[in-house]
Specification:
about 290 residues; 9 helices
Length: about 290
């Protein structure tokens, strides 16, 4: 698989080599088209390198930690001595590296032309990649997403999910801003690793885009965790009185008047499209 394509014109030209981009490339090859796949970083995108796959590796490690704690329930004499975060990262990186190598091999075998560089849509049928223009009879924009931060400066103890995957040690406490899928995953992992976690969610429930039955089951499970977990909801529809329980619902008024002093803050708000920055102004506005 070459870093640059031998030809500069394709039946299908794809901007973005993440899950959507490489899947479209493979399908186009199956249909007999010539394909150019443009990626500025690593093939596999967010999902493979800083999203779905590494997160699931952490979740599996967290599950093992919980199993060690609860072995006595099943007649197994086990206990959790400590969390070796470096070992967890090594396990995660091994999984990602294996899948990345497999993806590279698959695209090479299928003869997908991979173009490495920063691509920018400059016309209806052209993409500029670091000064070289490639043309496509059909253009697919698969530029992925980026973290929404609402203007918060990311750095130090304030991080997004990307930075959270490469932490060198665990804090004693942390706030997760956003109770969607990503936020709940990280809160669950950290809680299993012994961190006191507070989830701040602006809607009446966690993972608000999921079915009500799933939300109910998830919240019931989180209430039963052994370590301290708190849910803070800013919804005015929440009317439950704050209590000392591990999992609380607070009204908007109480939420606004409450200050949290924790070691780390993880910004896990919904991700937003990354396409606008990858098109010229005239194309982006059309």
């Amino acid at each position: 698989m070459a870093d640059s394509a031998a030809t500069q014109e394709f039946d299908v030209l794809i901007l973005g080599g993440g899950s959507a981009g490489y899947s479209a490339a493979l399908r186009a090859i199956q249909l007999g088209y010539t394909v150019g796949l443009i990626e500025k970083e690593k093939l596999g995108g967010t999902c493979l390198h800083t999203g779905c796959i590494p997160t699931k590796a952490y979740l599996h490690a967290a599950e093992l930690a919980e199993n060690a704690r609860e072995g006595a329930k099943f007649g197994i004499n086990s206990s959790l001595e400590s969390i070796d975060l470096g070992g967890v990262r090594k396990y995660k990186e091994g999984i990602v590296a294996g899948k990345y190598k497999g993806l590279q091999g698959l695209l090479k075998m299928k003869k997908v032309n991979v173009i490495t560089g920063n691509g920018r849509l400059v016309s209806q049928d052209s993409i500029d990649v670091d000064g070289t223009v490639y043309k496509g009879k059909n253009i697919i924009l698969a530029t992925g997403s980026t973290s929404k931060t609402f203007g918060l400066e990311i750095g130090g103890r304030v991080m997004t999910s990307t930075e959270a995957l490469n932490m060198e040690d665990m804090p004693k406490s942390a706030i997760v801003l956003g109770g969607g899928v990503i936020g709940v995953e990280f809160a669950s992992v950290w809680n299993s690793f012994g961190v006191d976690v507070t989830i701040v969610e602006g809607l009446p429930s966690l993972v608000p885009n999921e079915d009500p039955a799933i939300i109910k089951t998830l919240e019931r499970a989180l209430r039963s965790v052994a370590s301290s977990s708190t849910l803070v909801s800013s919804s005015k529809r929440s009317s439950r009185t704050p209590t000392a329980s591990r999992f609380r619902w607070l009204t908007a008024t109480y939420w606004k008047q409450t200050s949290f002093w924790l070691q780390w803050v993880a910004v896990q708000l919904p991700r937003v499209l990354a396409s606008k920055s990858r098109a010229s102004p005239s194309i982006a506005a059309s």
